[in-house]
Amino acid sequence: TFTYTNFSCYVSRAFLVIKTNRINQKYLTGLLNSKLVVFWLKNKGKMQGSNFQIDKEPLLNIPIHKPTNELQELIGKLVDYIIKIKSSNSKINEYTTNNSLSLMFEEVIDAIIYQLYFDDLPDDLKVIELVEQSVSEARMIISVEEQINLLFADWNDYNSKLRNRIILQKIQNPDIATIEKYLSNESN
């Protein structure tokens, strides 16, 4: 698990701290927690049994894609939503759990990361434009909780283009299907 903090903190030597001005750190948090990086670490990183051995060497070898600043900010905004959801002491949405909300935003980040790394995706599997449009519309609402609820309602709808493209990514792209199947089998 990778986390973002925006305050001074002290951690034990068991933790690695990444501090950089070269890339948006919230984007980096979303990327490093993505299924693609989990898959990469399981296959190219070091393992201690079923746990990752996260030290400097495997971290430095992760292929970091640096998208435009706008796309880094978009993923950073999704990470902000996840942080808000996970740090909330009360339910943000009366119809679902905060965990379900968080998982949806994580799934959207995964879909964006897949599009970044598998740039040959056909248009009907691309999600970035849809996410940009939805988040842009949601940001017009003042309350972050209301933004989260609006996005959840939009993306969770049965007819949502974004939801359906995410599902199709996992089925139609052989690389993404392999990653999803592998991680699904690992968690069972």
List the helices and strands and how they pair.
Blueprint: H1 25-32, H2 35-44, E1 46-48, E2 51-53, H3 56-61, H4 69-87, H5 98-117, H6 128-138, H7 144-156, H8 161-172, H9 174-187
Antiparallel strand pairs: 1-2
Describe this structure as you would to a colleague.
- The relative contact order is 0.12.
- The chain is globular.
- The chain has a two-stranded antiparallel sheet.
- α1 crosses α4.
- With 188 residues, it is mostly helical.
- 60% of the residues lie in helices and 3% in strands.
- β1 and β2 (51-53) form a beta hairpin.
Q: Which radius of gyration do the C-alpha atoms yield?
A: 17 Å
- Taking the alpha carbons of the first and last residues, their distance comes to 19 Å
Q: Write down the secondary-structure element order.
A: HHEEHHHHHHH
Quick one: how many beta strands?
Answer: 2
Count of helical regions: 9
Q: Which oligomerization state do the chains in this entry correspond to?
A: single chain
The description of the largest β-sheet is: 2 strands, antiparallel
Let me know the average pLDDT.
88
Q: Indicate the overall shape.
A: globular
Helical residue percent band: 55-70%
Write out the strand line-up for the largest beta sheet, numbering strands in chain order.
Answer: 1-2
Unreliable stretches, pLDDT < 50, 5 or more residues?
none
Structural class: mainly alpha
Tell me the β content.
under 5%
